[in-house]
Amino acid sequence: MAESDQIVDERSLQEVVRFTSELIRIDTTNRGGGDGREREAAEYAAERLAEAGAEPVILEKAPGRSNVVARIAGDDSSADALLVHGHLDVVPAAAADWSVDPFSGEVRDGIVWGRGALDMKGMDAMILAAVRSWARAGVRPRRDVVVAFTADEEASAEYGSGFLADHHGELFEGCTEGVSEAGGYSFHGGDGLRIYPIGAGERGTAWLNLTARGRAGHGSKANPHNAVTILAEAVARIGRHRWPVRLVPTVRAALTGLAAVYGVEADLDDADFDVDALLARLGPAAQLVESTLRNSANPTVFEAGYKVNVIPEHAAAQVDGRMLPGWEEEFIATMNELTGPEVDWEFQHREVALSAPVDSPTFAAAREAVLKFDPEGHVVPYCMSGGTDAKQFSRLGVVGYGFSPLKVPPEFGYGRLAHGVDERVPVEGLHFGVSVLDEFLRRA
Ligand SMILES: [Zn+2]
């Protein structure tokens, strides 16, 4: 590709670092239950977009819970639009555990430090820097690009993407596909292998409340209807259950792609195919698929009783369940079976599972953009074990991909740092990211 084709310039590289740092300095901690505030960060993003000639709107479901949306016109107004979204909120940070102030945005020795550096103010900054580079160069993306910065992703999305999808769908008109967090970063697979997993699906969320009702009574008396015992048995059955392997299309594609990267023969359609044997040969990359081979249900909360010699009438528990796309019915039937006749269960929170095609032009454009800037990288699709704002935007018919490109050194520890202590991002990684993102957004 010719040098003159490059839109991201020296100023873009400076801006992506400065914007990451300045966004980190705006504390947008989301404590859940409606306790959060994104307005200052939203105004910051809106100003950076307006300076580039865009016309952003700020939308709030409640005061301070701000979202920003802007549409950048593409060359081909008849083409489907592309959504790129990033959340503005961050999870809490306990400053005492950190080696820097988590809201300092300090840039030291080529690293930007602070809560949100990875998740996901760095990506927010890349989006802003890319859009501004287009304005300076006088270029347009191929198709309309709708930019959205959201509130409340780290809780229920009620004030963020959920609100936008339910009340401002018109702003996303024509958007058929979207990209956002949790994919496109360099995963180090050992032996110098750099793998870029691109998200092409998400398991659905199934947070459950379980209750057992028994017969209350004296702790010294025989009682076959002890609610604690009944519920404990159900919880143990759930926690010990070995869910069957269900290879959904995205996970099949991930396994096939990873097998090729590692030079391992794998015939997923062979009756003797053994997924555990394959995982054992994928080294660290097994992490990219091991949580999405099956549905899952982990008991997380158990509440019962109030005194040692009193058998309580009720016992309650909570379970964090995750459902593969297409296997929600199996999840429900299995929970009915595992809980048994004396325990009731219900969804306290349910979110849809997603699946995106891996043979689409958009996936191919993401792959090409990565390989342009890292020709020795390997791009594979993967399914996320949890969820993102893509679930809410799917209600508008937007097919979501996890693509927030970043290149980090092998020792960096991406997975440990997001939501962790001393979250940080290398300046070089942001430079790579904005270059890849620009390339992708203009061409996809
Ligand atoms: Zn995030």
What would CATH call the architecture of the largest domain? 3-Layer(aba) Sandwich
Mind telling me the CATH superfamily name of the largest domain? Zn peptidases
Contiguous helical run count: 12
Largest sheet: 6 strands, mixed
Q: Remind me, CATH topology of the largest domain?
A: Aminopeptidase
Strand order of the largest sheet: 1-2-6-3-7-18
User: Which ions, cofactors or small ligands are bound in this entry?
Assistant: zinc ion
Could you give the distance between the termini? 16 Å
Low-confidence stretches: none
CATH class of the largest domain: Alpha Beta
Structural class: alpha+beta
Helix share bin: 25-40%
The total count of strands amounts to 19
Describe the structure.
This protein has 444 residues and is an alpha+beta fold. It has 2 domains: 10-182 and 388-443, Zn peptidases (Aminopeptidase), CATH 3.40.630; 204-240 and 296-344, Alpha-Beta Plaits (2-Layer Sandwich), CATH 3.30.70.360. The chain is 31% helix and 23% strand. The chain is built from 12 helices and 19 strands. It has a 6-stranded mixed beta sheet, with helices on both faces. Strands 8, 9, 16 and 17 form a 4-stranded mixed beta sheet that branches. The chain starts with 9 loop residues before the first helix and ends with a helix. Bound molecules: zinc ion (ZN). The site of zinc ion has 5 residues, from helix 3.
Short description:
The protein is α+β, with helices and mostly antiparallel strands. About 30% of the residues lie in helices and about 25% in strands. The radius of gyration is 23 Å and the shape is globular.
